[in-house]
Amino acid sequence: MRHRLKIIPIGGFGEIGKNMLLLQYGDTIIVIDAGLMFPDGDMLGIDFVIPDISYLISNKDKVKALILTHGHEDHIGALQYLLKDLDIPIYGTPLTLGLVEKKLEEFRLKANLNKIKPNDTITIGPFTIETFRQTHSIPDTIGLAITTPVGLIVISGDFKLDQTPIDGNPPDFNKLVEFGKRGVLALFCDSTNVEQPGITPSESLVKSSFENIFNSTKSRIFLVTFASNFHRIQQAVDMALKFGRKVAIAGKSLITNIEVAKRLGYINIPDDIMINIKDVNNLPDEKVLVLTTGSQGEPYSALSLLTNHSYKQLSLRPGDTVILSTKPIPGNEVMVYRMVDQLFRKGVEVIYGKDAGVHVSGHAAQEEVKMFINLLKPKYLIPYHGEYRHLALLKKIGLELGIPKDHIIIIENGTILEFEDGRAITDGKISLNNIYVDGLSIGDVGNIILMERKRLAEDGVLIVGVLIDSETGLILDGPEIISKGFIFVKDSEELIEIARERVREVFRKKAGKNGNINKEALVKETLENFFNEELKRKPVIIPLVWEI
After folding, report:
1. Known catalytic residue: 40?
2. 315 and 281, same structural domain?
3. From the centroid of its chain, how far is CA 34?
């Protein structure tokens, strides 16, 4: 019996993060990546967002494997939630699985972990999966070439074509040429950095900027980067060695990740250069490098705690130098620049931004994307890993390269893309929702609760207490009005007293007329109308009515 190949994106199409893609042929499903997404400004109180795996759960007998392309949180961060419902083997490179093991330890989970390397081949049901080396901002990144019964599917993973990477392992161009000669039915191509013209600079170019900074700086240096950017961390450590600085680490995730990377040989930090964070104040300023996290302005990150004197052993002080060796994740710009302002207010020297030369992207710019596509020569091009504008811009590049318009397919999360007899068609969608993680709550917070949180944040709340005579319907005591985030009661006593009297008046008019009246609704409606008339504002009103 012949089947169509189904490819369904669960996350990462039309958004940055939450990456998950599934391939299904007959009774076999393989899953690529299981990432999380950081919340945007409208997701009040949310820690992060994870993919909706309800389709996988409803087909759990068909799900045979999860393959991870690399160890960033937007590709492995939802793994612990997926494993609660799916007991499947996981494949990943040694560093990726090292980071996964730490994550599973934290959540007291066990999994069937299988190490793979570039140039490995594994077979899972009708799928033969070949791994190939990619360069990215974390070592051990791979792309996937998947031979299916209908043709060869190439999944780029996150990549850039860095030919002078820090670890000396450039992309495997020979493999790309080989796949191109073999014939690629469809290429799923990273579009994250496609707005940028030209070529993404090599990670090695950061070295000269670091060297200039370390050479000219006599203050303490705080390097802020992602906890998984081991190439960046290695370059900073190399500069500390060259210029005689000791290295301390602030941030739990950074400590954990560096421990994993050191143990597996992906980073080299001599033991004699390391010091405990509590010993930093015992050294001259020019002898200190502190590696820390918090580049996205997270309120409880190590950098924020250092800035606000909330870190137990150490605080930032005037004259310190902070290197922000990242760029804001889309949606985090406001938080990041608010943090930069705060650092400048403290008298800290802040080195940041595109022109500072302290950060390069881990994703391919336009010319690299063109080269990647030209090497593979796909029949179909499917942009992924980007917001909608990124997908659209990658489609434009594909058109420039001569790929027919109807062979460049923009799909979003949930779209069912099917291949049969060398043709691609979209065939409906599966229903998907964002799954919000709020503390220990997973999926309990939905869009309605987020809308309520937003309204509370924007309009404030009034809590109104009223004691009513159950026989007469008259108010015996109150209304007592407590305002949170709406008005300051002590400065608005006259307005509050008028509001109280308005409620009393309504109850006097209704007294004895209808014993079945909804008294909570009456209080709420009366005050909503009053404050809308007086202030053109609509606070959330919570009526508390007692009857005796």
Report:
1. no
2. yes
3. 12
The catalytically annotated residue of 162, 231, 320, 363 is 363
* 470 known ligand binder: no
How many domains are there within the chain? 3
127 within domain boundaries: yes
Per DSSP, helices labelled H in 477-542 are: 493-510, 519-535
Is 190 an active-site residue?
yes
Q: Is 227 annotated as a binding residue?
A: yes
- Domain-embedded: residue 67: yes
Cα gap 89→105, rounded to integer Å: 17
Identify the three-state secondary structure at position 347: coil
Q: Is 329 left (phi over 0), alpha (psi -120 to 50) or beta?
A: beta
Annotated ligand binding at 72? The verdict is: yes
Which tokens in the block code for residue 500? 């109280």
Residue matched to tokens 């091009």: 381
CB atoms within 10 A of CB 387: 16
Ordered mean pLDDT values, 10 residues apiece, the chain (548 residues): 88 93 97 86 66 94 97 93 93 97 90 97 98 96 97 97 92 97 98 96 92 95 92 95 95 91 94 92 94 77 79 86 85 78 91 89 96 98 95 98 97 96 92 74 56 63 80 75 72 77 78 67 82 78 80
- Of the listed 52, 140, 190, 320, which one is catalytic? 190
Task: Give the torsion through C-alpha atoms of 352, 253, 364, 358, to 10 deg.
Answer: 20
Residues 51 and 18 sit within 8 Å (Cβ to Cβ): yes
Nearest to 151 by CA among 376, 416, 420, 427: 420
75 annotated as belonging to a binding site for a ligand: yes
Closest among 184, 118, 106 to 151, alpha carbons compared: 184
Residue 280 falls inside a structural domain: yes
